[in-house]
């Protein structure tokens, strides 16, 4: 992702009203698009899509066209801050001088990784604005231009037509167009474009009247009138096993947010299950519901984001709602308690669902019918488990729609997780900001309206969650516990306690001493629930409040990751397939994991193999469900969500996404500002024999030992070698960078015929470049045992120092020989690296 450096370089912010950087208010909302009409030296439309923390931007001279046959030139320009979406008015001086009007804005979505699609040169996406709707394409042009040229093309869908951007100008923009016209010809064109104003294309509506008559004829239907205010939903009881018999139907338990729809006089209102309005957050769903053309209705369903397998992706949903991703959202509808003047709440469930299915037969793709199976509950649950779904919901076929929790709806969940009230927090430690962990409680089984401490959760948070939660609890709370404590925990001495309000859902591995959660990890903050819902839920289960709830199956394992297109050849010269890459990482996993777990990691993805486009990726993308994410500050000062492997499942999921190489930071997620590794990359220039590279590594090893520093050896999988210095407990990056620079410079000065410490390739001939630049915050080095995206699939291999004499090259080990080598080894060549206690205090002075 590009920074805002070019944007800031081109502007004098003492003379322009344009925003200099992002506004904090732009965070934690859906990814937006904006189109601005810019009367600069040449009138054009600026088309902008939010990708991460910036607006990717294109200048479209003639504006978007709704005609799929028209390819509109779109010239790529510098990234803009997200806060630029709100800019209107005059740019009075310098770059971009002229008047700016906002033509349209809204949210946008795309199926897959936006950055990867842009890298490949074809982005498919959907817009949800007032003027621009439906599917679109951005396709990179082969034309040689001073700036990258693309084409903006309308997709063939229900919104396509002969409408042009100028047809949609309002009176304000029309005045700007006329005022900016400089010649009689441009004034005539402006007058003509404004005069031919056309309506925004609309999608086809459902057959409302025919369905309304069918609804009124259903047994149990009653004539009634409703408004579009909140209505109470029917809720499910938790059960360990599904019911049997054909009097039950079974649906997928979608892992998302419950959303209720109330329509009156054609106006759509969306509500969360705790009566919060959601129209502003879901304009795509509102537009889709409006396209049905209904006058009055009540619908019930779950808001989800779907991954590539069609499974609900809760992490993807949260990332999309916070602006970190652009996944298409789908409203999975499963009930219709009211329709066009008929109260259907007493009509049997199966009949309500049949009517709902007909209503959605021609609905936009963002509205979907939640299908079901009748009977065979155990088989349905087993299939849901095999497909790694959240679970199932079982409902009585003939049941009415009754608000509250009853015995007609049952939920059977697969994952071991539960919901707890947030009752406090601990202060942050190290480089972590906001808070250390959240304190959790469950309803007290002995005291009405009471709560019992359940433990702490400090992992699983993204940096965005840390920021927003930290802001909400800042300076709040009391040192006095607000819940019952079973024992004194010294870690809670500095805790701040608050009244139960927010709800957190966490994964955990059972309950330990004092009924505290073992190894809890945050699944999500349930913004759709409040603490009182947990009390009601426990009482509804027919058990004392606070009883731990059991789940039948644990979280995902490496076996859960399915490798698609396993036959795809990713190393074409050697015939190595995607499945062989996955098998390699599975075989070396216990050796590979320690070098990447909990470290921000850049990866090299080659989705179609090394013969085609490969690219670096370091930020979170839609679809990743088992990979850790953390929001970290970049060199430009902006923040971005970085990925990091949590376990073997994370690694194999990344391989499924086409990853071949792993390049971790020299620090961990817990302490990103403190390095625990220093890496010297010995990179030989042309005409350098291998024996000189080996001798150079030995010299670096001896020189470090003279400074009192232990070091370890690794091949790079390329031409050179890495000499790695562990630091424990770690050092600030500034100190590490100063040491690495001083060490490399001293080495080059002492041995000018062997080493060079400058990055210039022109000066490297016959010399070994001591690359110290990998030792700064955000820089990476290839991981031990990582493949390289090069012929023969070489591997970066850790070695003992006494193995260096037998080594023939920096790419001596590959995908086939590495597992054989590891099968012969009794111990890790780097055994004990994490126990070495050493730092850099005073070392730079020794170099001087």
UniProtKB/TrEMBL annotation:
Segments for region (Disordered): 1-22, 182-202, 536-556
UniProt entry keywords in alphabetical sequence: ATP-binding, DNA damage, DNA recombination, DNA repair, DNA-binding, DNA-directed DNA polymerase, Exonuclease, Hydrolase, Ligase, Manganese, Metal-binding, Multifunctional enzyme, Nuclease, Nucleotide-binding, Nucleotidyltransferase, Transferase
The enzyme's E.C. designation: 6.5.1.1
Compositional bias (Basic and acidic residues): 1-20
CDD domains for this protein: Adenylation_DNA_ligase_LigD_LigC, OBF_DNA_ligase_LigD, PaeLigD_Pol_like
Signal peptide stretch: none
Gene3D superfamilies registered for this protein in UniProt: 3.30.1490.70, DNA ligase/mRNA capping enzyme, DNA primase, PRIM domain, Nucleic acid-binding proteins
Cofactors (names): Mn(2+)
Stretches that traverse the bilayer: none
Recorded superkingdom: Bacteria
Pfam families reported for this sequence: DNA_ligase_A_C, DNA_ligase_A_M, LigD_N, LigD_Prim-Pol
Ranges annotated as biased composition (Basic residues): 189-202
Chain ranges of the ATP-dependent DNA ligase family profile domain: 322-414
Catalysed transformations (reactions): ATP + (deoxyribonucleotide)n-3'-hydroxyl + 5'-phospho-(deoxyribonucleotide)m = (deoxyribonucleotide)n+m + AMP + diphosphate
UniProt GO molecular function: DNA ligase (ATP) activity
PANTHER family noted in UniProt: BIFUNCTIONAL NON-HOMOLOGOUS END JOINING PROTEIN LIGD
Protein name: DNA ligase (ATP)
